[in-house]
Design brief:
This protein is mainly alpha-helical and 205 residues long. It has 8 helices and no strands.
Length: 205
């Protein structure tokens, strides 16, 4: 019996051995026009395996790239896209530049620090007070995500002043919204029926 373990390893096993056999046959076609027709037919078959993506332009490009890979980059055809090279695919991706900025209060996040800095830059006192109020309420909600026992408003005000380096002053008589446990509970989407509605489903005797 001919087992797959005894056959040549597939370069892209997700397309199956039959598609690979079609590719191997198309590579042996000497006439270039016929070879191009065979390539387009194979691309259509490969696309039919993923019908929800076959009409997406980027996906079509990917199919031609996969065809090149399945031929080990030795398929001489007229591709509508620039075919990749083995060296190009073997290139290592560039190292991502990670942000090394230290966040003093991690439970508030980097965005809060940016918003505090924006509040410092505001010259209009009314706009600054409104932004401080928004920041403080958001900080209280973020803090409550980690501490379900609640948090005093004065703690939030102190943290804002610390984050701003003492450049912000909390508006007088500022009161923050109350945070309740139900604010963090998922909403129950199950529909409930009233007694009057349930009667419609009760079979009369």
């Amino acid at each position: 019996m001919d087992y797959n373990s005894n056959r040549v390893k597939l370069l892209l096993p997700e397309y199956g051995r039959n598609v690979q056999m079609m590719v191997d046959f198309a590579m042996k076609i000497e006439d270039r026009d016929e070879r191009n027709k065979a390539a387009k037919t194979i691309i259509s078959i490969m696309g039919n395996m993923y019908p929800h993506l076959r009409d997406v332009s980027d996906f079509r490009h990917k199919l031609w790239d996969h065809l090149a890979i399945m031929t080990d980059f030795h398929f001489d055809i007229d591709s509508p896209y620039e075919l990749p090279t083995k060296e190009k695919l073997a290139e290592k991706p560039e190292v991502l530049p990670y942000n090394s900025h230290r966040i003093r209060f991690r439970h508030y996040g980097k965005i809060i620090e940016s918003m505090v800095q924006k509040a410092i830059e505001l010259e209009d006192e009314k706009e600054q007070s409104a932004l401080i109020s928004m920041i403080a309420n958001h900080m209280k909600k973020s803090y409550s995500n980690w501490n379900k026992d609640g948090v005093a408003d004065q703690k939030i005000f102190k943290d804002i002043v610390d984050i701003s380096g003492g450049k912000l002053t909390i508006p007088q008589n500022l009161r923050l919204r109350e945070i309740h446990n139900k604010d963090f509970q998922p909403k129950n989407k199950k529909k409930t029926f009233h007694k009057s509605e349930n009667r419609k489903f009760v079979k009369k005797k």
